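BUG: 3D viewer hangs when loading the predicted structure for this chain

Environment: internal workstation, default settings.
Expected: structure renders.
Actual: progress bar stalls at 90%.

Input used:
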Amino acid sequence: MSRFKLKARTSRHLEALVFIAPWVIGFLLFMAFPLGFSLYMSLHKVTVLPTGLKYDYQGLKYFTEILFGSSAFYDNLLPFFQEIIIMVPVIIVFSLFIAIMLNQDFPGRLVFRVVFFLPIIFTSGYVLTEFVNQGEGTLGFLERFSIGEYLIQFLGDSSWAKPVMDVLNRFVLVLWYSGVQILIFLAGRQTISKSSYESARIDGASPWEVFWKITLPAMSPFILLNLIYTVVDMFTFPYNPVIELINTGNYGYNSALAWIYFVVIALFLSVIMLLFLRLNRQARSR
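C-alpha cells produced before the viewer hung:
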C-alpha cells in the first residue's frame, strides 16, 4: 500500500514537472541571461564605443547613489506606490463582485462575460496609452459635479489627496484592468459545489451570510492569486513614473535602478502574502 502511494505521489510530481517544464525552459533560454547580464551591468559603468561596449567596475556605487544620494527615485515611487495601494483593493473587490454577478443564470450571460474581457485584448500597451492621452479614461461627472474639490477639502493637505484624485480620474482603468481577475474569480466560483449553497438555504441562511461563510472562504486562494497578479500588473502600468525613470541615464545606472525596483516589488508582494495568509488563518480559526 505504501509503495502504491509512493508511486502515485511520484506520478503527480512528474505531471507537475511536465506542466512547468515549458516555462522553465523558456525562462532559461530567454530570461536567465538578460537578468544576469543586467545585474552585471549594474556593477559597471557601461560606455558605448564604436568598437563595442566598455565596462568599468563601479561596485555598489549606483545602488548607493539611488538609495541614499538622489531623491528622484523616491519622488517617483512614493506617489505611484500610494496609487497602487488604492487601486489594487478596488480592482479586487470590483472583479469579485462582477464575477459573482456573471456566475448567475440569466439571458445573455456569455455576451456579458465577453464584454468584460474584451478590454484586456484591445486596450493594452500603446492603445491604452492613446486612450488615456485623449481623455477617454476619465469620468466626466467628476468635473461636472466638482467631486474633486469636495474630496480635496475632505482630505485637506494629506499626501493621499493627489493619489486618490488620480485613481478617480483613471477609474475606467479599473474596468480595463479587471478582465483577467474576473475570469479567475469566475473559474474559482464555479469550483464551489451547489450542494453547499442548497444546504445553507435549507438551514435558513441569508445571502449575506452565505457570502461570508461559504463564498468568500472558498475564494480565498483565488483572491491571493489575483492580488499577486494585480500588484505585478500595476507595477508595470504604462504610466509608471519609475519605469520612465529607468529608461533614462546610462546602462549601469538603469540596471541598478531596475534591480532596486524589483526588490521593492518583491518586498511588497511578500508583505501582502504574509498579511493575507495571517488574516485567512485567523478567519478559519474562528
